[in-house]
Amino acid sequence: MTTDxxxxxxxxxxxxxxxxxxxxxxxGQLVEFMExxxxxxxxxxxxxxxxxxxxxxxxxxxxxxxxxxxLRQFDKDLAIIIRTASExxxxxxxxxxxxxxxxxxxSKTTRAELRASTGEAIRETRERREINRQARATEITxxxxxxxxxxxxxxxASADLHRGLVHALRNQLTxxxxxxxxxxxxxxxxxxxxxxxxxxxxxxxxxAMVDSVNAFLDGPFGDGGDAAGAAVNVCLGALRQFxxxxxxxxxxxxxxxxxxxxxxxxxxxxxxxLMNGLRHLVEFFFLRASRxxxxxxxxxxxxxxxxxxEKLKESACVLNRDALRTDRxxxxxxxxxxxxxxxxxEVREAFxxxxxxxRTGNLHVLNQALGGVKGAALLARTPAGVFSVEAFFPVAL
Length: 397
Known about the structure:
Blueprint: E1 6-10, H1 14-24, E2 29-33, H2 36-45, E3 50-54, H3 64-71, E4 80-84, H4 89-97, E5 100-105, H5 111-149, H6 154-190, H7 193-217, E6 230-231, H8 232-243, H9 247-251, E7 255-259, E8 266-267, H10 271-288, E9 294-302, H11 305-313, E10 317-319, E11 330-338, H12 344-351, H13 362-373, E12 376-381, E13 386-394
Parallel strand pairs: 1-2, 1-3, 3-4, 4-5, 7-9
Antiparallel strand pairs: 6-8, 9-11, 10-12, 11-13, 12-13
Helix pairs in contact: 2-3, 5-6, 6-7, 8-10, 10-13
């Protein structure tokens, strides 16, 4: 359940605090301070969802911008609205530098505008915190996986983490772009040439940054349209190099046999996503196989609907069947090994297709890759106890 938002108010005039209290009633829990030092101490031990900060506080040793600088030393996610009686360009510059999302001029900002800005600040803070939480969770999961496997592909891990950080940067730039648009509108309304020049430069700078980040994320290591088209044999070759000589599996006498396509083709998936998904699929089998087991990962092309129907008929369970289309070929990646103790229900539960599943683990990573390209998987077991997981990725057209 989502908790009520906590909105911090820093204002050195009691009358202004009472005004804000009346304007913001119903939006969340208000915590009010007249001294910056007390507000700073509170934020160090309590999590807030938005802050409304007065800039000019002549009765205090610290003004609003100094408070923001101190706050940003330990909290870079809290979205802040600055309040001032002035429309000074210099104040706007300082606030942007400290990542304030909005400026509210006391005599000109209406109750509706302040409530809308506060709601926006709450949403942005929570989005920033969730992005950072996911990044930390990903890092913890990667560390735990490294400890469990005794080996770790630093190139894949660093690329994956870097892409996540760039995604987070794009989210922040989107908010900054919105602020640049507000500044431009304010500048046009003010008729101040200096303010207008500042607003135009701000919009141009943010626009260039957003374009550059989008271009990167649409490239070979992103997840946009241009990133699609992972070469199957190239990815399998890189996967072979990754698993060669892994100390843990060598010590347990476990081996991997990879079977490429006769001629390379591309699937409709980003290279990094395909590599990550297949790596975790193989590791799922390595973790469960007994000593001396040979694990096989074989790629093949499913050319026709009849061929696909035949494969599906052989399965014990089909996951995400509705994603399969009959009007295009697929590349099948079939991982298999003798796993007589492994139950079909256990594997089906580990996949848990759907964005709300909340699952983690090796097969969940493969599930994410398949979900991104609308792929499917089938599970099968032979009478001899050989278990297989077959993942279908559509061929890039």
